[in-house]
Structure formats: structure tokens, C-alpha cells
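Q: Please design a sequence for this.
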């Protein structure tokens, strides 16, 4: 734990010197040397890059407000429904990832990679930085499309104040090149990576992570560049360094337990998983995270054993304001009592329509000693996100071995693999790992092998390639509940699960940003002022407007 605390401290120092909040400082933060020294440990900068992804509370606002709604996994809380559920275009809310990831994580990682380039004593940290920068840039590009890439974070290195927007096709091509370079550099006999809160410097795991990312990116482009996709996928599958095969190789960002706070300090403190905090909510007893009917019904209708490990029913009137304590679990009472369960449809707030509710026996008994408790309930019949997912120490998910199995399964369906393991076997392995992932990392009650076997037996893999693709990617959607960036990217790429617009549920009159579910987020308006020429060039490639219904390059659905 002592070494881990040192990582945290180093990250906070590195992030503090790059953090900005004022729009007038936007380009300054991107292009000003943050340190005036070459003494910042590149390992500390890697730590910053790792921790910021889920540790930046402002950046996670975009995830809560838009991504969870577009993925139709959460709905009902004001933020999720107001923005993503109602297709409300808000340039500030949708641009946090861009405006914060570039000047902090990408800036630190780019600087560290540049300073360690061609340094024989820092070959492993340079390789890790290459791999991680690739991941960070994929988050940006998958959300926004064309984006500054080769010149991103280069302001104080090469004096580039207005970086050009690279085509997403070119960005992905360079992803594969960067992963190639990194794999050739990794050498367990050379420098130790000391700032790594994902793998603790384990070179073998970094190699598997790099190959696994290659598989992800290859599958991402499989509909728009199928031959390149197949080539790159098989390169990873056949690489002697391997890919992720077990939970011990999952790429998870480690966080620690801190009390939740929505004060200013929370915005520069990356120690906690801030998506957990936001899903807990800044008004948790009145505005918790509710499960969307799309997500709930998919699990419930297939008798998925994860249903009531992810979705629970609570009375939150006694809950702490700083953490998910003192919730009264009503799940068994509701399910066994025949109470009507009412998950929120896409586009609905928690009060639309007002649920019938019921009178709780549990709370009636508690009210005998606490007159503040009213046992007559309403919104408690709407499934909420289980407490296990609201903890500050929850991991930030980058990639898992379960995802790799689903990628291998789809590659098998496509006929890419010459393997003794069938696509269906990879699929079943992925489902098994995805279910075990919840108990391994979130403290959910373990799902037994017999439960998993029963689920797989009752939910057919499919007898056509398209049905098999659907089965694989619906399971990936459930797995990626804790990885919302990848979830939204894969839903758009695969087309599964099929989702209906909130307009189909009666909310069409509220959808000011169009009835179709958006397929990208818009660029920050600031780009039109500070980087006008390159910004306009990117818009011209998209037809002249910054429209969130314009598909990114790899999304040809």
C-alpha cells in the first residue's frame, strides 16, 4: 500500500500542474510547458494518465449524462435522462472528455513519451506510454471521430499551437504501428515501470494488453476495412506474447476508498473512481441511478443471474451523503411479494409515469422506532444500481479477458480463425468470465458454475452468423456496463443490441436533438475559435456541420 500511495501522490503532482478550468486558458493549457523542467518522472506521468480516465469527476459527467443513456443501461436520474435520454445538445456537457483528456492525460503521456524516446535506459516506460497513449486516443476518436492525434499534446514540444485534426482512418492505421513499436521495445531485462497502477510494471501483461487492444481496434474497423482488420487481428492472435486469457491479466485501473465529496477538491483528486461517485449521485436519496428498461428486461427475460446483482430495490431515505451506506434493501420483499416492477423506459424521468408503488412490511416495522420513515413507497419499485457499483475503490475498466473471448468468438463467426476452439466455445467462455468479473471486482455474490451452465443452455448461441454476432455483442454490452467508453463504441460498431429511440416510448416531443439515437458527440465550440482552420477542415469532411448524427469513419451501420 505504501508504494501505491506514492503513485497517487506523483499523479496528483503531475495533474495539478496541467489542470485548467477557464475557457480562456484552453489553448494555453494545451501548449504551455507545464513543468519547466525535465525532472518529472515519466512513470509519474503514466500514473496521471491512468488515473484520470475514471478519476476525473468532471470528465465522468459526460459518461453519466450521455453514454449511459445512449447505451440504454441507465435512465431516470435527472442528468442521464435530461441529456442523453432526451437527446439534449449541450456543448459543455458533451465536451468534458475532449477538454480534459487532452490537456492532462494525453499531454502528460505525450510529453513523457517524447522525453523517453530513443533512451535505452527507459525503453519499457516508453513502450507502456505508447500503448497507453493509443488507448487514450481511441477514447477521444471513438467519441468524436476525426481529432488531433499526431500533433496532439505537442505544443510545448514542437511549438504546435493549432494541431491538425487527423482522419480517423489514419488514426487507426497509426494505432497498429504504435502497438508494433511498443511490442518490439518491451524487454523484461531492462528498466522497471514504477508508476503503473494497472499492471504494476509487469511487462508480460503489458504485451498481452497491447495485443488485446490490437484485436479490439481490428474488430472496430472490420466493416469498413475488412482485409486490414483480419490481418491485424490475426497478427495479435498469433503473436507469441499472447493476449489476455484470464482475469489476472485484465487491464483495470486501481483506485482507493475515499469519502465522496462534490467540493472543488474532488475535481483535482483522481484517487477515487469518480463514475462510481456520480452514479451514487450528488443528491443520492432523491436522484439515484435507475436501471433502464432496455437493460433490465434483457437480463430479466433471459433469466440472467446478473440481473439482481446489478439491479436492486432500495429505500434510500436513511442513506449517507458521502457514501452508499444505510440503504434498506427491499429486493426480496418486492420480488416475492408480487409488486409491479417498473424500470424506466428510454427518455423517461423516474417520475414518468408515477409508479403505483406499495406499502413495505420492512419499513412498517422500522417506522415503529423511526417516525421519519414512511412505509408507503413509490419510486422504490424502480430498479436501482446495486450498491456494489457505487464504491470509490471500484476499478476503472480498460479491457478484460472476457472482452477478448467475445472478440475471438466474433472472429470465429467471420471465418478468420483456424482454431480448434469454436466460436461458440469462445462465446461461452466470455459469458462465464463476464459473470465471474462481477464477484472478482465488485464484491457481488458469486455466480455458481451451475447457474452459468443453466443460463447458457437456455439462451441459444444462434444458428446463423448474424444471430451469433447478435448473441456475442449483446453479451459484450452487458459486460461493458462498467466500461462505458467501450460499450458505446461497440454498440455502434456491431449494431447490437437493437435499440429503439425514446420517441418509440412516447417521448418524441422532448427530443430536441433529433429522434434518432446520436452516434457521436460534437466538438467543443472553443475549437472554432482557437483552432479554426483545422476545425473547419474536419467539419468539411463531415459535410460541413458538427452533427451528432454523423457517423464516425468505422461506423457504417
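A: Design:
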Amino acid at each position: 500500500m505504501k508504494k501505491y500511495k506514492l503513485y497517487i501522490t506523483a499523479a496528483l503532482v503531475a495533474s495539478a500542474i496541467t489542470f485548467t478550468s477557464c475557457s480562456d486558458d484552453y489553448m494555453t493549457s494545451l501548449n504551455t510547458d507545464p513543468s519547466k523542467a525535465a525532472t518529472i518522472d515519466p512513470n509519474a506521468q503514466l500514473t496521471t494518465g491512468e488515473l484520470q480516465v475514471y478519476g476525473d469527476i468532471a470528465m465522468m459527467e459526460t459518461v453519466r449524462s450521455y453514454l449511459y443513456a445512449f447505451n440504454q443501461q441507465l435512465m431516470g436520474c435527472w442528468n442521464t435522462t435530461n441529456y442523453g435520454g432526451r437527446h439534449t445538445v449541450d456543448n459543455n456537457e458533451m465536451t468534458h472528455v475532449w477538454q480534459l483528456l487532452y490537456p492532462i492525460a494525453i499531454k502528460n503521456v505525450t510529453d513523457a513519451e517524447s522525453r523517453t524516446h530513443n533512451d535505452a535506459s527507459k525503453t519499457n516506460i516508453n513502450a507502456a506510454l505508447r500503448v497507453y497513449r493509443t488507448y487514450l486516443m481511441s477514447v477521444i476518436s471513438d467519441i468524436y471521430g476525426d481529432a488531433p492525434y499526431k500533433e496532439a499534446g505537442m505544443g510545448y514540444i514542437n511549438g504546435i499551437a493549432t494541431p491538425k485534426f487527423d482522419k480517423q482512418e489514419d488514426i487507426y492505421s497509426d494505432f497498429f504501428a504504435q502497438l508494433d513499436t511498443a511490442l518490439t521495445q518491451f524487454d523484461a531485462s531492462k528498466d522497471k515501470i514504477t508508476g503503473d497502477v494497472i499492471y504494476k510494471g509487469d511487462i508480460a501483461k503489458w504485451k498481452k494488453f497491447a495485443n488485446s487492444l490490437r484485436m479490439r481496434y481490428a474488430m472496430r474497423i472490420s466493416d469498413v476495412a475488412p482485409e486490414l482488420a483480419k490481418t491485424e487481428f490475426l497478427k495479435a492472435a498469433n503473436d507469441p506474447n499472447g493476449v489476455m486469457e484470464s482475469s489476472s491479466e485484465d487491464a483495470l485501473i486501481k483506485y482507493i476508498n475515499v469519502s465522496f465529496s462534490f467540493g472543488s477538491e474532488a475535481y483535482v483528486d483522481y484517487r477515487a473512481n469518480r463514475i462510481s461517485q456520480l452514479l451514487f449521485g450528488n443528491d443520492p436519496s432523491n436522484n439515484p441511478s435507475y436501471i433502464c428498461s432496455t437493460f433490465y428486461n434483457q437480463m430479466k427475460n433471459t433469466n440472467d443471474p446478473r440481473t439482481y446483482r446489478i439491479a436492486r430495490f432500495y429505500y434510500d431515505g436513511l442513506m449517507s451523503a458521502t457514501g452508499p451506506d444505510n440503504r434498506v434493501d427491499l429486493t426480496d420483499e418486492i420480488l416475492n411479494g408480487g409488486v409491479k416492477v417498473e424500470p424506466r423506459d428510454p427518455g423517461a424521468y423516474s417520475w414518468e409515469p408515477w409508479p403505483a408503488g406499495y406499502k413495505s412490511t420492512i419499513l412498517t416495522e422500522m417506522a415503529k422506532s423511526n417516525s421519519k420513515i414512511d412505509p408507503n413507497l413509490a419510486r422504490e419499485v424502480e430498479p436501482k444500481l446495486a450498491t456494489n457499483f457505487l464504491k470509490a475503490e471500484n476499478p476503472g475498466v480498460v479491457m478484460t479477458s472476457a472482452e477478448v473471448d467475445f472478440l475471438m468468438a466474433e472472429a470465429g463467426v467471420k471465418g478468420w480463425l483456424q482454431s480448434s476452439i469454436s466460436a461458440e466455445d469462445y462465446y461461452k467462455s466470455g459469458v462465464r468470465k463476464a459473470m465471474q468479473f462481477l464477484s472478482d471486482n465488485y464484491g457481488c455474490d458469486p455466480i455458481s458454475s451451475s447457474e452459468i451452465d443453466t443460463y447458457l443452455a437456455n439462451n441459444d448461441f444462434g444458428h446463423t452468423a448474424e444471430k451469433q454476432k447478435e448473441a456475442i455483442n449483446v453479451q459484450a454490452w452487458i459486460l461493458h456496463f462498467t466500461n462505458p467508453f467501450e460499450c458505446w463504441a461497440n454498440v455502434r460498431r456491431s449494431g447490437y443490441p437493437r435499440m429503439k429511440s425514446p420517441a418509440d416510448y412516447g417521448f418524441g416531443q422532448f427530443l430536441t436533438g433529433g429522434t434518432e439515437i446520436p452516434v457521436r458527440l460534437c466538438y467543443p465550440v472553443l475549437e472554432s475559435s482557437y483552432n479554426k482552420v483545422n476545425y473547419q477542415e474536419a467539419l468539411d469532411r463531415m459535410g460541413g456541420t458538427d452533427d451528432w448524427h454523423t457517423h464516425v469513419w468505422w461506423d457504417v451501420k
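Q: Thanks. Anything notable?
A: The first strand starts at residue 147 and ends at 148. The beta strands are 147-148, 165-166, 251-253, 311-312, 314-315, 328-329, 358-359, 376-377, 384-385, 396-399.
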